[in-house]
Amino acid sequence: MNIKVLQQNIDKIIIAENSVDNKLQEICNTLKNSISYYNWVGFYFNHENKKELKLAQYAGEETEHTIIPFGKGICGQVAVSNENFVVQDVSEQDNYISCGWKVKSEIVIPIFVNGNNIGQIDIDSHSANIFTEKDEQFLEYVCKKVASIL
Ligand code: SME
Fold first, then answer.
1. Beta strands in the chain (DSSP E)
2. What pLDDT is stored for residue 1 in this prediction?
3. Domain residues for 35?
4. Tell me, what's a Pfam family for it (predicted)?
């Protein structure tokens, strides 16, 4: 789908009369349904002050990784680095938490509220080498919009 149209769809979800939880769920569903190689889309947020991430809304297969300690896996590393993490081939990563053999690549973009990294969007793909700078830019847009309602 055209990225501009997708951004407009995200904007509509953000400004709708709806709870934050429902909006986040709709964003997961929209992203997964609109971009063929987004096979799992979820939000992790910092869990209290425990230096761990907790899974919130997601679209795709259920995962047992509902709590991820800071520093562990791709998600846990982004909680510490505050930077986007694009993994083109997960088999080359030592510090990686597998969510199933089908996953070949992953992208994690942090969400900042008042300059603080408070969580992230995490996307898994069944295709290797699939994410580009366009995904990063688009997902940064999504994360900024999400930050505006938190
Ligand atoms: N692969 C992630 C774990 C979360 S799942 O992808 C849903 C990681 O290494 O942090």
1. 40-46, 52-59, 67-69, 85-87, 105-113, 116-125
2. 67
3. 3-147
4. GAF_2
pLDDT along the chain (150 residues), means of 10: 93 98 98 98 96 98 97 98 98 95 97 98 98 97 98
Q: Pick the residue whose CA is nearest to atom 1 on ligand 1.
A: 97
- Are the C-beta atoms of residues 145 and 10 closer than 8 Å to each other? yes
For ligand 1, what atom is nearest to the CA of residue 44?
Answer: 4
Q: Residue whose CA is closest, atom 6 of ligand 1?
A: 99
* 104 to 51, 54, 146: CA distances (angstroms): 27, 23, 26
Q: Is residue 54 lining ligand 1, measured as CB closer than 6 Å? A: no
- How many domains are there within the chain? 1
Q: Any idea what the CATH number is for the domain that residue 14 is in?
A: 3.30.450.40
Q: Which of 98, 103, 104, 107, when mutated, tests ligand 1's pocket best, judged by the most ligand atoms within 8 Å of its CB?
A: 98
Point out which residues pair with 121 in neighbouring strands: 43, 109
Structure confidence at residue 136 (pLDDT)? 97
Q: Is 44 helix (H, G, I), strand (E, B) or coil?
A: strand
